[in-house]
Amino acid sequence: MAKALTSTEYIQHHLQNWQVSFGADPFWTVNLDTVLFSLVCGFVACGIFVLVASSMTTGKPGRLQCFTEMCFDFVNEQVRDTLNCEDRFVGALAMVIFFWVFMMNFMDLIPVDLLPWLGSFVGVSHLKVVPTTDINLTFALSITVFIILIITNIAYKGFFGYIKSLFSHPFPPEYIITIPINFFLVVIEELAKPISLSLRLFGNLYAGELIFILIATLPWYAMFVPQAIWLLFHVLVITLQAFVFMVLTIVYLSMARQHH
To answer: Which of 27, 37, 127, 163 is the least crowded, having the fewest Cβ atoms under 10 Å away?
Structure first.
């Protein structure tokens, strides 16, 4: 593909999604590749844990069970250190977020031309294989976490307690003038959470994918060294971004439980 297209056309080709429209309005356009690969990554991530849970043994655990238990202890430690207690719901949510996001990020390590080349045999002209480079998906993840935060706030503070908390900090609400100021600052603080979660994940993975595409436009004899170096570095990036998304979710849930 790099030989058939100019560098600019090659980059633009790899940055376009496989889309289907359900009307003239662009709002009803679906990125099928994002949906497909995110579901595959989700089923793989959750399927591993279901498989291990259904075949656990205390005698001589296999390597997959040992690895899964290490991951569980790692995530559970983050939950315990942040919440000062163990929580099954937060722990399960953190596990799903970390491994699902990691699996979607991991798709960036697949050679950039491989899956689009395979897709061309079934008539798919454009294919982006990294779901987290689609801002629609990262915003969907962050908005889902945001909804869970609102539900958690209401569950621990009650509906009226949650509404009251919107007007009660950061300044003491003894004076009427501080109440609208508090509300404005809290709204900005709350809206910043899903925006920062989504844009951080999207920006880092989109930049990483773009660098891989730029390296792929180099001559074959000059691409292997920079590709290998960036591959090693990017392994840390995809893991770190999944970890950051998970930890911030745990922190936000811990904050939602606090009473002012």
So the answer is: 27
Sign of the Cα torsion 217, 219, 221, 225 reads negative
Give the number of other CB atoms < 10 A from CB of residue 1.
14
Secondary structure class of 121 (helix, strand, coil): coil
Report the pLDDT value the prediction gives residue 175, as an integer from 0 to 100: 78
Predicted TM-score (pTM) of the model is 0.89
Q: Which amino acid is at 53?
A: A
At 1 the three-state DSSP class reads coil
Identify the pLDDT of residue 2: 45
Active-site pick, 7, 21, 125, 196: 196
204 is catalytic: yes
96-126 burial: b if 16+ Cβ within 10 Å, else e: bbbbbbbbbbbbbeeebeebbeebeeeeeeb
Where residue 152 falls among pLDDT bands split at 50, 70, 90? very high
Please check the confidence at residue 111 and state whether its pLDDT lies above 60. yes
Q: Which pairs count as long-range contacts for 230-236, CB under 8 Å and 24+ apart, including other chains?
A: 231/109, 234/108, 234/109, 234/208, 235/109
With a CB cutoff of 8 Å and minimum separation 6, the contacts of 4 are none
Task: Name the catalytic one among 136, 165, 200, 254.
Answer: 200
Provide CB contacts within 8 A for 144, sequence distance 6+: none
- Told to judge if 84 belongs to the known catalytic residues of this protein, a careful annotator would answer no
User: What torsion, rounded to 10 degrees, do the Cα atoms 101, 104, 108, 110 define?
Assistant: 140
Sign of the four-CA dihedral 186, 188, 192, 194? positive
3-state secondary structure (DSSP) of residue 19: strand
